[in-house]
Design goal:
By secondary structure, the chain is α/β, with parallel strands linked by helices. It contains 13 helices and five strands. Helix 10 links the parallel strand 3 and strand 4.
Amino acid sequence: MSRRKLDVDRTRERLLGLGLAHAADQLEPLLSEGVKEGHAPHAVLDALLDAEHQARESRRVRTALRLSTLPTGHTLADFDFAFQPAIERSRIDTLATCAFIRATETVLIQGPPGVGKTHLAIGLGVKAVELGFSAQFYRFDELKLQLKADAHLPPARLRRRKYLSTALLIIDELGFEPMTRDEASLFFRLVTYRYGRGAILITTNKSVRDWTELLAGDEALAAAILDRLLHKAHVLNIKGRSYRLRDLEATLGAARN
């Protein structure tokens, strides 16, 4: 028994020396289970490697989500599709494969406030991170400030900005305020750079026909931006009820009762 213990300790030290801390933690319990259940040696080894892989993958996802600035608490799993029948579950499931990111395509989610646009955007962002893609989340007013701050950067430095380098750029709440001519030009530069290089997901309360007004009234600029965004695009129009109003109604109903 003491000899076995010594061998296990030595193996654990070697695993730690190789940076396999999670496998080292699971070594003894997995060996004990293997002996008890009569598992083949290669099966125990596979279980150790799987424990290491899962722990590393979990850590990678946590780190990537933190760096993405995606808001917490929203996933596709907790989206209430029953309340929003205007959204085809099959389309969201297809987007959740993240093939649109590999193909550097656009996802445009349109609809009035409260219908779940941001929830879907965040959920797709989380799925992208889980599948190994980098993602970055911006509310449009925050992105405008960043674009203005970086307006005079040389191209080499500009390309390192997350809104250009990330595999999936998520822009939330575009359309609540019209852009100035300078802001529209900076947005055009962003869309032009990412066209064919990286995927964009946009949530907006404006339909495509209203984008000229949104883009400082510049028809030519609006046409150029939409031409790039819609060339390879998945457009979702949501016209259902507001989740927030539903929750408010439920709260008021509970208070009356």
